[in-house]
Design goal:
Strand order of the largest sheet: 7-4-6-5-9-8
Radius of gyration: 30 Å
Oligomer: single chain
Length: 424
């Protein structure tokens, strides 16, 4: 029988204890990623179903692409030496479509050829059909514009050489990457197993949409938007999600939820309950069951971030406010779960764009401002940057990553992180 735990087991700070300095975001991320050893479990999936998965092998081509010289356009395959002058007329000796095997091209003749069709032996150029005139019902062709040797020919192996690594281990697969894998004949791919993530929230004020109509919401109650947000973010980052719903704001209920989730998941992700209030039970529950090694970051929004271990599972606690949870997930949780999958690249690549706004009230914490690109190539700021204003992440198309204590003047170049990359 499991002995009941109490909040005292967590050894909270006493009222008079000095507060620990907030951890800078880069330091916090480096520490977090130091714990993110790849899970190591692999599986084979159909190339059709591998979008977004992380490749667990170097993909080496067993053939060259294209397999032989082929035509880059519809036209006529010729010997360049035969069409030195405009107006040269040649008999059309054969017709070659994609997938057909051509005959050698005799000197002084042309072959009608279509895009992707193999170049016949002896031909060294393709003249596009717009530069030709068919004669005698297609039995002959007049070359109206000469072409040099090599024109409009895709060379064998110019895309992929035999034996080349076309996709490296750690690549997060995109539609283009799946097409590349298919182009070298791979019907199945070896990928990293999806991280198993248990998700739950705390907060007696939370109400699920559909449970209570808006006109009947009790005082202080809010619809639980963060649950929907985090579940979708986890799935986009390649995770298999178990949604455990809303846990009551009680220490014993939080301990039980953590203990059960940790038993069968790689990561337990929570929202709410990681601050320092009397109703914030997640932090002491984690400390009672395991350890907490990272807590509170110098970022805005998103200070109440926590990382630790519960039994054999990783634990990450996020703030309850939806925008704080959203931004902290993108900056911390997304790199972490990608690293669990062995992804080679986990951090976003910022762009430098001009600010078409002023931000004079610099915060000592690193700030992430919701912005949108305008038609002039600059960034406009959402008017309300509060951590509960979810409208800002719908209106915006990215974040400005602003260093601590750094005011922004109109026209300054700032670091822009587009949602197109962060949500991919």
């Amino acid at each position: 029988m499991t002995e009941p735990l109490s909040p005292a087991a967590a050894q909270p700070l006493s009222a008079g204890a000095p507060r620990k300095a907030l951890t800078p975001l880069d330091d916090a991320l480096a520490e977090l990623l130091s714990h993110a050893a790849p899970l190591g479990a692999l599986e084979s999936v159909s190339t059709f179903d591998a979008d977004g998965r992380v490749l667990a092998e170097d993909l080496r081509s067993a053939l060259q692409v294209p397999p032989q010289d082929n035509s880059a356009m519809d036209g006529y395959a010729v010997r360049a030496a035969d069409i030195a002058a405009a107006g040269t007329v040649l008999p059309v000796a054969q017709r070659i479509a994609a997938g057909q095997a051509p005959q050698p091209l005799a000197a002084g003749t042309a072959a009608r050829i279509f895009t992707g069709a193999p170049i016949p032996p002896g031909a060294d150029a393709v003249v596009m059909q717009e530069h030709c005139t068919a004669l005698d019902g297609g039995a002959a062709v007049r070359i109206d514009r000469p072409a040099a040797a090599g024109t409009a020919i895709r060379r064998a192996g110019e895309d992929v050489a035999l034996g080349a690594v076309v996709l490296s281990r750690g690549t997060r697969l995109t539609p283009g990457a799946l097409g590349m894998a298919a182009s070298i004949g791979r019907a199945e791919l070896t990928v990293a197993r999806r991280p198993r993530v248990a998700l739950f929230s705390t907060g007696d004020e939370l109400v699920m949409p559909g449970e209570v109509p808006p006109e009947a919401m009790p005082p202080g109650a809010i619809y639980h938007s963060t649950r929907f947000l985090l579940r979708a973010l986890l799935q986009r980052a390649g995770c298999a999600v178990t949604d455990l719903g809303i846990v009551p704001d009680r220490f014993d209920a939080t301990v039980e939820a953590l203990r059960g989730a940790a038993a069968s998941h790689d990561l337990v992700l929570t929202s709410g309950g990681v601050s320092v209030g009397e109703e914030d039970h997640v932090k002491p529950a984690v400390q009672a069951l395991g350890e907490l090694t990272l807590w509170q970051m110098a970022m805005k929004p998103g200070k109440p971030f926590a990382y630790g271990r519960v039994a054999g599972a990783h634990f990450i606690g996020l703030p309850g406010n939806p925008v704080s949870s959203f931004v902290t997930f993108l900056m911390m949780v997304r790199p972490f779960v990608l690293a669990l999958q062995g992804a080679a690249r986990v951090a976003p690549q910022p762009m430098r764009l001009p600010a078409h706004f002023a931000w004079p009230k610099a915060d000592p914490r690193r700030e992430f401002l919701r912005v949108s690109r305008n038609d002039q190539g600059g960034l406009e700021l959402f008017a309300h940057q509060g951590s509960g204003v979810l409208t800002s992440v719908v209106w915006g198309d990215g974040l400005v990553d602003n260093p601590p204590s750094t005011p922004i003047a109109h026209g300054d170049l700032v670091r822009f992180l587009p949602f197109a990359e962060l949500l991919a």
